[in-house]
From TrEMBL:
InterPro entries for the chain: Dimeric_a/b-barrel, YdhR
SUPFAM superfamilies recorded: Dimeric alpha+beta barrel
Molecular function in Gene Ontology: monooxygenase activity
Protein name stated in the entry: Monooxygenase
Gene3D superfamilies, sorted: 3.30.70.100
Keywords: Monooxygenase, Oxidoreductase
Length: 104
């Protein structure tokens, strides 16, 4: 069953176009993470937050990615990482045009 992973953390710079230019390599590498279906990058310059919303094939993949990503962020000096894994309510999400499909 697909799982949604929400991650956020305190983040000061860069944001916007500068972040986009600096993170292209990381973004491309995330496409090769086991079980990752897609990611939406999130940023809030006012609140100084970075993060993402991910869709994974199952909870095991989401848990493994969260552990790896948390360790990577810690190695970059980012210590307050918040990660949550959610079930998806498909009937309601379908009504609201969520970019997800039911998988076996």
């Amino acid at each position: 069953m697909q799982k949604l992973l929400q991650v956020d953390f305190d983040f000061t710079v860069p944001f916007g176009d500068e972040m986009s230019a600096m993170m292209v390599g990381l973004a491309k590498s995330i496409n090769h993470e086991p079980g990752m279906v897609w990611k939406i990058w999130t940023e809030n310059k006012t609140e100084k937050l970075g993060g993402g919303i991910y869709l994974f094939e199952n909870e095991a993949y989401a848990q493994a990615y969260l552990a790896m990503h948390t360790a990577r962020l810690h190695s970059m000096g980012i210590t307050d990482v918040r990660g949550y894994i959610f079930d998806i309510n498909m009937p309601l999400s379908t009504i609201n045009h969520a970019p997800i499909t039911k998988t076996a």
